[in-house]
Each structure stands twice: as C-alpha cells, then as structure tokens.
TrEMBL record:
Group of enzyme by EC: transferase
Source lineage: Bacteria, Bacillati, Bacillota, Bacilli, Lactobacillales
GO term, biological process aspect, one: cellular response to phosphate starvation
Name of the protein in its database record: histidine kinase
UniProt organism field: Fructobacillus tropaeoli
InterPro entries attached to this UniProt entry: BphY/WalK/GraS-like, HATPase_C_sf, HATPase_dom, His_kinase_dom, HisK_dim/P_dom, HisK_dim/P_sf, Sig_transdc_His_kin-like_C
Amino acid sequence: MVKKSTILAQTVLSLLLATLTSFGLAWALAFDLLKDKMNWSARESWPFFYIVWLLLLIIWLVPLWRRSRERLLLLNLTKRLYTLANHPDLDYKTDGNDESDLPENQEKRQLPTYSNQARQLTALVDRVVAEFNLAHEEQLAVEKSKDEMMTNISHDLRTPLTAIIGYLGLVVTPNSPLSEEDQAKYLKTAYHKSNQMKTLVEDLFEFAKLQTTQVSLNITDFSLGDLFDQVLANYAMEAENRHLRFATNLDPRVIVMAGDSDKLARVLINLVENALKYGQGASFIKLTGQVKENGLVEIRVINDGPAIPASSANHIFERFYRVEESRNNKTGGTGLGLAIVKGIIDQHNGHVKVESDETATAFVMTLPLKQVKEE
C-alpha cells in the first residue's frame, strides 16, 4: 500500500525540481531573447526574467498539483477498500504485511474486535429487553389472574354464606311455620353449602402451603384401593342423585404403595370434584391404578363428560387458570384445584397430564411406587 508520507515527499521533491528547472529556463530564455534585440545586459533582464519564471512555474505546477491530488484520492480509495476487505462481516481478510506496524493500521486491526464486542453488547441488550418484556407480560397475566381469583373467591364465599344464613334463619326462627320436612331440607342445603365453603378454604390453605419450601411429606405405606374407596364415599349421595356411576380398577401388584396418603387423597378429591363440577352429562367416574415399568404406578381419574379444549390442555395445571367454558356462575371455583394437584404430584417426584377427546377425559398421574422417607 502506498504511504501518504511517500506521496507528500514526492510532491515536495517535484516542487523543488520544478522551481529550480523553471528558474534556470526562465533566466536563460529571457536573457537569450532580449540581450540582442533590446541590448539589455544580464542585470537589466532580471525583472522580465521573474515574470517569465512565474509563468513557467504556474504552467508546471498546475498539472503537478492535479496529479498529486489524483494520487491522494487514489490513496484514500485504496485505504477504504482495505478497510472494507477487513470488515468483520466478510470471510476474506487481508494479511496486512505491508504496513502492519503503522498506527492507523494497528487501529484498523482493532476494528473487528470493537465491532464484535458492539454486536455482542447489542445482542445482550436485546435479550435482556426481551426477557424483561416477557417477564413483565407474565407478571401482568399473573396479576390479572389474581384479580379474577379474588373476584371468584368473594363470589364463591358470599353465595353459599348468604344461603346458609338464609336457610338457618328460617329454621331457627321461633314459631317457624316450616314443617319438619322443610326444616330438614333447609338444613341439608345449608350443610351442602358449608361443605362448598370448606373446600374453597382448604384449596386456599393447601395452595398457600405449596408456595413455601418448608413443606414436607409424611411418607407411609398405604392401600391405594382403600384410598379410592374413602374418596368416592364422600360423593356417594351426589352420585346417586345425578345417576352417576362410580367404579374402580386396581392392579393387584399395586395394593400397597408409599406416599403421603393425606396429600394424595387431596389430589383425588380435587380431581373427582373437578369431574363432578365440569362433567355435565357424564355417566361415570372411574379411578384406576396400574403398575408400569421402572417401579412406577399410574393412577387415572376418568369421566365421560365434555372434552377439554386442546387450547386449554397445556395451561390447565397453571395456578388461577380456568377453562373458558367453565367460567360461569354454576361452576364457580378459584382455579387452584388442578394447580394443587400438580404441586402435590411434583412433591412426590411424579408427573401429571390430561388426555381428553370426545369419548372421555382422563387425568393421568405417574408416581414412584416407593418413596424415600424424609428424615
């Protein structure tokens, strides 16, 4: 690559040679032309000599200046091409052997590093901004869900409480005109509403416990068949009123398994209540237990009620989430029941999923048949 200092040196040398040459030519030409015609001596020809010298110098310097300017432009263009050739986005790099020690070239060699650092910093900033926006959107979604949950809780607590107060008020009123049959019916309704409130409060309490890291499991050996029977017995009357058939199917190899029976009972209660609440038109609810490979047991809660939309299947275990079709005054709920199910199954090192189509919906839990007892 041609150095700018070389161009300047050549230009200065050319100017010096041009000055000396034009000076000599001008003096010789002026003296030769005028000494005979004008009878001028060498001393008298000096003024005219200077005029001729200046004209020759100008005539000489103009093209020289143009050539120097063109060479400088060419030098700048060459440097720009060199910079482009070494751009970090290009695969080809010049070796830079000609002028590797020049300060400007040393600085150029740092440009790819600076450019790479700038790109990395830009990518980092973009990633941080994207993560912040995602976290902000998730936080807004959680806040919205919490607001909806509080609205649901207020409604679900106030509605049965109002009914309980109303029915009990009629029963305990002195000289009540109600017959014993009506009083029994009102007391039964108040009892049913009380159980609704109890379930709601238990959901909130259980969910609050699952949010802490100090929750421990009381691991014991228990009969899965007995657990099935105990859970279904709580809803025998409701099943009879709805002409709903309960059934169980248990693999003989899973008669006894290990786990926190109280918490697993809570899981089954939530799933059965979920089937009763949202399984309008269902004809049966079935609990099954099957031994799988690698020392696992698979528990299913099956009903033939309406299918769960595919769009909801991936979110149904999220806290506060409720399937759109279920958000009505008849079903109520906080949206915590299935989140509690997942939390308890996770504590048992298990997995839960939902399978749903037009024929049936099954909540499938896979758990270790044996659990490690906590010290």
